[in-house]
Amino acid sequence: MSFQEFGEGGVQVRVYTGRFIRGPRSGTRVLLKAYPGRNAGSVEADAMAANELATHAVLQEASKEFCPHIALLLGGFQTLTGEQWLVFQDRGQLTAADYAKAAGLATTDRRAVGNWEFLDYLDYSRPIQRRRIFIIKMLRGIFGGLSYMHSNGRLHQSLGPSSVLINTLSESDVYSLLPQLRDMAFSVDISDEEIFRGHRSGLAWRQQILDGRSDDVSIGSATAALADGLWRRARSAGALTPLERKAFGIADDIYAAGLLMAYIIFVSLCKSGSVDGPSLQRLFESTFQLDLQAAREYCLADDNWIEAIKFLDLGDGAGWEVLQAMLNPDYRQRPIAEAVLNHRFMTGAVLF
């Protein structure tokens, strides 16, 4: 099996590709996510694996019609060396980061990502229009998955270009594009039961995760500690009551989703290498203090960014409007994911 290795928090995680060779799922392609064993990792790795498994269990049990924009967990197991393995259905191994990089190169070279059409050689607006449609479709999948999570009492808390799986890079295949959210290790339980009781709910599946361990308490404490940073930020923002904490958590995810949206649009539609995620975030947060109108005026001066600006300008600035709402400094003023989905920029109405 081929694999990739990447860091989540302070833990090195490996992701393998494979296929079932027998049983009822014979032939099904899978992604296997391996957390290090106790001897190679820490209590944090076990806590992250348990939290990710628990999150998927809750989301998959929450509705008879499971959201297609959440990666589908098929199961999990522990090896003799203590490694925790999670098994997901493989609907695509590419990420939003992969697409943005490919699209940025295509924007630089004035071409399409994937297959060209003959008229593209004569009219560059055609591949750019398909790029815009592709981006909107990807964003709708991201916010659809996020809306499902929030509606079922879970925050993501790890949204980024690599946490969005897609099944194609080709812009001509936009109608088959399937974005899926993954990387739930830092997900936070904001169900009413959890928010008001202030401790883990003790559902059967959560107990099964911890059964048989001599240090259950340490793992449970480590799992709860994964949300410490979020609740510190909530206190700093004045969110003290249970409902305020819940609202802050949702708004915190929306803020991260706004930064992700900006990344996808700018990196995909700007000259390759002229912008990246951290520099864009610094520009918005530090240089312009989340005043996106002022940021727009600055961006206009750089010809390398013109296609991104033109995209956000559609519909009398509809893109800037929704982006500014998500990045509002006051968490109370940020929209929920469902409201973002219904915004005229996100419905694609501004494209035609």
UniProtKB/TrEMBL annotation:
GO molecular function term, any single one: ATP binding
A GO cellular component annotation in the UniProt record: chloroplast
Gene3D superfamilies: Transferase(Phosphotransferase) domain 1
InterPro entries in the cross-refs: Kinase-like_dom_sf, Prot_kinase_dom
Coiled-coil spans in chain: none
All residue ranges annotated as the Protein kinase domain in the record: 1-346
Name of the molecule in the record: Protein kinase domain-containing protein
Organism this protein belongs to: Ceratopteris richardii
